[in-house]
Design a protein that fits this description.
Blueprint lengths: L2 E7 L6 H9 L8 E7 L5 H7 L3 E4 L8 H13 L4 E5 L1 H13 L4 E6 L8 H11 L4 E4 L2 H9 L7 E3 L6 H4 L5 H7 L7 E6 L8 H14 L3 E6 L5 H10 L6 E5 L4 H6 L3 E4 L8 H8 L4 E4 L4 H4 L6 E4 L4 H13 L1 H15 L4 H20 L3
Parallel strand pairs: 1-2, 1-4, 2-3, 4-5, 5-6, 6-7, 8-9, 8-11, 9-10, 11-12, 12-13
Length: about 375
C-alpha cells in the first residue's frame, strides 16, 4: 500500500530548492510513495513535474497569515488523503504546517534550507511552537542546524540530510564550445560565473567590486551572472556606469545551467548567508574550482585549498586574492576541479533519496504502525 506524501514549496521557479526537488522526486520509490506537489506560485517546474506523472496544485498565498490559503491546504490534505506533509522554506514551513496540524496529518516534516538570520523574535516563537507538532525538521547542513537550535528548537527534532546532485547531468563538457560560441566568448578567455537570485543575500555587489580590480590586472575575463531578482536592473545600471558591460553578462533565469557551467573556468559564490548551496554541488560536479564565502554549510562541502577557496563574507580583498590566484594558474584550476568532482560524489542524489525514504519509512512505522 502506497503512502501519500505532499511536498509543499513556495514556488515552482528555477531556484535551488526547486531544482533539487525536481531532481530528487524521480529517485523516490513510486511503488512505495505517491507524491503530490503544492506551491504558492506557479513556474516552469510545474510542467516538468506533470510530465513525470506527479500531481501539482497551485494554492496562492497572498498574506503572511493567509487564512484562505490555510483552508485550501487543509482541504487538499483531506482530499488527497495525505499521510506525510513535507514542507520546504519559511513560508510553507509556517502556512502548510498550520494546515497540516489542523487537518491532523499523521506525519509532519519541515525542511530548513537556509540560515534565516532575518527571522525576528515573533517568527522564532512561531517556529518553536510549530516544532511541537512537527515530527522531524530536516536540515541541509550542520550550519543550518546550529542556527535553528539557537532559536530554541531542541536537538532531538533534527535530521541532517545533505542535498544531492545528479553528477552525470553535470560532468559532460561537450557543451563548452557550443555555449561559448553562443555567448560570443573566445576559448582563451577565462570565464567566472555565479548562479543565484540577484538578492542582497547572494553578495553580487561584492563580486562587481572585485571585477573592477581583476580587470585592471587581467584583460581577458568574462563574468556570467545567472539568475533573476529585484536588484538586477540596479546592478545592470551600475555595471554600465563602470564601463564593464562587455565583461559582466547578466543572463537572467536559465534552464540550461549544466551547459552554462560547462563553459566556465571558475565558479564563485560571494553570499552573505547560505544553507548548503546546490550551486556549489553543481559547480563541483562540473569539475570547477569554487571560491565561496564561509557561511552556512559551505565549509562542510568545500575542502579549502583542495577543491577551492573559502573567504570571509563581504571581504573584497580575500575574494580578489583567491580569484586572482585561480585566474593566473590554469593547472591549479584543473587540479582543484578534478578533486572537487571526486568530492561531490559523496553528495549524490541517490544518497539523498535513500536517506529521505529511510526517514519516511521510520516515521511510517512509528506513527502509522505500518511495517
Amino acid at each position: 500500500m502506497k503512502t501519500n506524501v505532499l511536498r509543499v514549496v513556495s514556488n515552482l521557479g528555477t531556484g535551488g530548492v526547486q531544482r533539487r526537488l525536481g531532481s530528487l522526486l524521480p529517485y523516490i520509490n513510486k511503488e512505495k510513495f505517491n507524491i503530490t506537489v503544492c506551491a504558492f506560485k506557479d513556474g516552469p517546474l510545474k510542467n516538468t513535474l506533470v510530465e513525470k506523472g506527479y500531481k501539482v496544485f497551485i494554492i496562492k498565498r497572498m498574506f503572511k497569515f493567509d487564512l484562505i490559503c490555510i483552508i485550501r491546504l487543509f482541504k487538499l490534505i483531506k482530499q488527497e488523503k495525505i499521510q506525510i506533509v513535507h514542507t520546504h522554506t519559511h513560508k510553507p514551513n509556517t502556512t502548510a504546517r498550520i494546515a497540516a496540524i489542523l487537518a491532523r496529518a499523521p506525519i509532519i516534516i519541515a525542511n530548513e534550507h537556509n540560515v534565516d538570520e532575518w527571522k525576528n523574535a515573533f517568527q522564532k516563537l512561531i517556529d518553536c511552537f510549530l516544532c511541537r507538532f512537527t515530527d522531524i525538521i530536516i536540515v541541509v547542513s550542520m550550519g543550518v542546524q546550529k542556527f535553528c537550535q539557537s532559536t530554541g528548537i531542541p536537538f532531538c527534532k533534527f535530521r541532517l540530510i545533505y542535498n544531492g546532485v545528479e553528477v552525470d547531468k553535470f560532468k559532460n563538457k561537450k557543451f563548452r564550445d557550443t555555449k561559448r560560441k553562443e555567448l560570443d566568448i573566445d576559448e582563451n578567455t577565462c570565464v567566472i560565473g555565479t548562479v543565484g537570485r540577484i538578492h542582497p543575500q547572494k553578495g553580487h555587489e561584492f563580486l562587481i567590486q572585485v571585477v573592477e580590480k581583476l580587470l585592471a590586472e587581467h584583460q581577458s575575463l568574462i563574468f556570467l551572472i545567472i539568475g533573476e531578482g529585484y536588484l538586477k536592473e540596479e546592478f545592470i545600471r551600475k555595471v554600465k556606469s563602470l564601463n564593464l558591460s562587455k565583461n559582466i553578462l547578466f543572463l537572467g533565469e536559465r534552464e540550461d545551467i549544466p551547459e552554462l557551467l560547462s563553459c566556465m573556468d571558475i565558479f564563485v559564490l560571494p553570499s552573505i548567508r547560505e544553507g548548503f548551496p546546490n550551486t556549489i554541488l553543481e559547480a563541483m560536479a562540473s569539475s570547477l574550482p569554487v571560491v565561496a564565502t564561509d557561511v552556512g554549510g559551505v565549509r562542510e562541502l568545500i575542502i579549502p585549498d583542495e577543491t577551492g577557496f573559502i573567504v570571509p563574507p563581504a571581504d573584497i580583498s580575500a575574494l580578489h586574492e583567491s580569484l586572482a590566484k585561480l585566474i593566473k594558474d590554469k593547472d591549479l584550476r584543473i587540479k582543484m576541479g578534478n578533486t572537487g568532482f571526486e568530492r561531490v560524489k559523496e553528495f549524490s542524489i541517490e544518497k539523498m533519496a535513500k536517506e529521505t525514504e529511510d526517514l519516511y519509512q521510520e516515521l511510517i512505522k512509528e506513527k502509522l504502525k505500518i511495517k
